[in-house]
Amino acid sequence: MIDLHFHSTRSDGKLSPQLLAKRIESGGITHCALTDHDGVGGIDEMRRCLERRQVTLIPGVELTALYQWHEVHILAFDFVPTAMHEILKKREHIVALAKRREMNTARRLFARAGFVVDDRLQPLPNEPVGLTIARNVYVNQQNQAYLRARHGRRLSPTEFFTEYQAFDKPCYTRRSGVSVQWIIRHLRGTAADLIIAHPFVAVSVFVPRLGWQDLERLIDMGLTGVEVFHNKTPAGTVRSLLKMARQRRIHYTGGSDFHGRRGDVPLGFYGRSRVPSYKLTNFSHAL
To answer: Do 68 and 113 fall within a single domain?
Structure first.
């Protein structure tokens, strides 16, 4: 079995690398990659847990990047974790500075829209600035009264975010981060593969989804492949992505995107199907 996309407690997963290793062993998974968000701290622990098992563990990480008005996730595979860690430290510093600027912009936009804004609010390390400030604005009782007067009823959190912070809405701010070009420039030569993750799955209500032309452009920019098999990708789209990968002779992967949450598909699956195959620069496997 194959799973090249899952997460541990080193990012937003619920299970430690050690517990994930036990599930990998008991589940009969033979090819896997821990792909925590923007960090590689769990890879060595998982390698130690699996070192005597018949399991191919490929170093992996899932990186958030910006492309035009889109937010995309890129799966980097097959690298030396210490080298990747140094690059991620540079990325973290850039993003931290950008998040401060984004917070100031978001404050101004919400104030301009008539809301009370907490000037003491600070960006959180693992959360988009837009979500941090929107949540703070939403729970303010004075703002709730303003919303009821303006809309004639109480808005749910999702309705509030959609009405004010979704793409092209009055309080929308582009998420802070590094560009896809930055990722390609800094990781080329460090990671053997850069794969666009779940390309047509919305990563946030605040940003538009990618289209097929966007995916083609991202591949042309230097990404080496696409994640074909993913739980939230419809079956027809899976077939189209696999056809595209074969026609363009690019690499492809698949995984459960397992976080250990209730309702997650098991490791090694997408929907009710097992991940059947993958192809990377130095690794490949088919059931």
So the answer is: no
Task: Indicate the average pLDDT of the chain.
Answer: 94
- Positive or negative CA dihedral for 236, 250, 219, 2? positive
Nearest to 53 by CA among 19, 97, 21, 82: 21
Do 197 and 62 lie in one domain? The reply is: yes
Q: What is the Cα–Cα distance from 149 to 146, expressed in whole angstroms?
A: 5
Residue 206's pLDDT band (cuts 50, 70, 90): low
Q: Is 203 found in the same domain as 67? A: yes
**Tokens for 60?**
């992996």
Instruction: Please state the pTM of the whole predicted model.
Output: 0.91
Assess contact for 29 and 55: CB atoms under 8 A: yes
Instruction: Count the domains in the chain.
Output: 2
* Band of pLDDT at residue 173, cut at 50, 70 and 90: confident
Cβ atoms of 65 and 38 closer than 8 Å:
no
Domain presence at residue 218: yes
